[in-house]
Amino acid sequence: MSEVTKRLGNILAIHTAILIGIGFLSLFYFLFGLPTHSLLDPLCWLTLTLISWILFTWNRVTKQSFDLYTLFILSTVAFNCGQIILQVFGLNTEAGLLEGRFSSKTLFETVLYIDFALVAIHFGALLRLRGIKKIFPAGSLKDAPPELFQIGALLTILSIVPTLIVLKNLISVVQSSGYFGLYERSDLVGADNILTLISGLFVPGMLMLIAGSRKRPELRMGAEVGLILYALTFMLLGRRGDGGEVLISYALVRHYCIRPIPKKIILPAALVVIGVIFPLMAMIRNVDLNSRADLDVMVKAFESIDNPMATALSEMGGSMQSVSYTMELVPKYRPYDLGASYFYSAFSVFPNLFWSLHPSIARGSPSIWLVKTVDPGIARMGGGIGYSYIAETYLNFGWWAGPLLLVLIGYAVSALVRWSLFQADPAKIAIAASFFGNLITFARADSQSVIRPLVWYSLLPYLAILVLQKIHRSRLEAPSADKT
Fold first, then answer.
1. pLDDT band, very low/low/confident/very high, at 191 (cuts 50, 70, 90)
2. Where are the alpha helices (DSSP H) in 97-216?
3. Does a structural domain hold residue 373?
4. Which of 126, 163, 297, 434 has its CA 20 to 30 A from that of 191?
5. What is the model's pTM?
6. Where is the domain boundary, 65, 99, 129?
């Protein structure tokens, strides 16, 4: 029996009891009721305890604290529990949780369902670790296959010009119309969107180049600089999430494929990004683009923020409202989707070749439905209020079946980590890191944000690597076959 298996057994037993306990608490609430107003704060404390338990037990089993699953949980916590954490420490505004927009009953049910979700996700993740014999630590790598570098170079070459054009267009929009001009543009569809679709290959291509060039430091450093500049451009434009996701994906590849990043660097860097850069970008994203290079403007903007870390957590944690709204509207005003949103998300994998508007877009995603329902004004401007994969499970299957789907989500994320990071395979690590940005988006969006990128920008490049490897092997085997 491996050390991982030994550590996992007791933790899984305890966590199963916690999952059952949350289920019984939910059942008791719906059967007999509870004083929601007086128990809301204790329930927030329970949430913080569960978050600590999840992070501690994953690290206890895997000995990893900078991996895809940990980051997925942290992003889920930031966007769905940020204001819950602030509530525990009394750092929300006087209006309270979610600015007092919801009744204590709705807030209590929201926090309870999020607790149910977190425990269900972690249960699935722990289940997938059963039977694992060894977890390779960061930096202990197999040799990168040459096909990884070749496919990475091909994707980068194909996407570099479209990426530069897309960035130029985004910069022009922000210069002329400000940050919100990015959301006032008409959405491009079909062939008109081809440049954006091709530019989506840029980040996977660069990550594959970096992962495949450990022994080519000059090429690797060039790719690293290019990817960092790409991420910083998005952050300067105000699209903090896009830039941050690219930086974390890059950090993962560097940590596992090049050289482990010391823990004493990871945490301070994360605090700087969340507590300084994110709130600062929020303050200046409507400032003229040229003025953002003025250090005095930046300093004054940052000084105007009362509590940067609390501000960042409050803003990110606002995505929790999607759970509250969904629970109020479904099934009272809209029936359960019963898997329909996931079907249309999967259908979005197919390009728009036969329709004037892709059926998945025509039907609308859950996030689009929600903003049109609760804030039509923002919807008409092209904006949104965020969504959450946790809310989408409730939208589809309700209180009791939704957590079953969340078990599968946790199982799938854990499987991705086990398949890639824990096997020390550079090609798999690069592919997993390429998908990571979409996985983080999934924490504050719906499934339409994750299915197409998974197939187009992760699975297909990995399939290309496998096909190229097969071609190379067949060529090597051909001469020996001729000799016989």
1. very low
2. 104-129, 146-177, 181-184, 194-199, 202-212
3. no
4. 434
5. 0.91
6. 129
Residue 61, classified by CB atoms within 10 Å of its CB into exposed (0-12), middle (13-18) or buried (19+), is buried
In terms of C-beta density within 10 A (0-12 exposed, 13-18 middle, 19 or more buried), how is residue 210 classed?
A: buried
Residue pair 390/76 in contact by the 8 Å Cβ criterion = yes
Which of 129, 155, 178 lies at the terminal end of a domain, its last residue?
129
Same domain as 186, residue 122 = no
Question: Is 57 in the same domain as 183?
Answer: no
- Judge whether 114 lies within some domain: yes
From the number of C-beta atoms within 10 Å of its C-beta (0-12, 13-18, 19+), residue 478 rates as exposed
CA 433 to chain centre: 11
CB 472 within 8 A of CB 394: no
Q: Which helix (H) or strand (E) holds 410?
A: helix 389-419
Structure tokens, 438: 């979409």
Contact indicator for 38, 142 with CB cutoff of 8 Å: no
Its domain, for residue 202, covers 146-322+385-405+423-476
Residue in the block written with tokens 């060529």 = 475
Query: How many independent structural domains does the chain possess?
Result: 2
Establish if 311 belongs to a structural domain.
yes
Residue corresponding to tokens 């927009």: 101
User: How far apart are alpha carbons 368 and 448 in whole angstroms?
Assistant: 11
pLDDT in tens, 31-80: 999 999 999 999 999 999 999 999 999 999 998 888 999 999 999 999 99
Burial 121-144 (b: 16+ CB within 10 A, else e): bbbbbbbbbeebeebeebeebeeb
465 phi/psi in degrees, rounded to 5: -60, -45
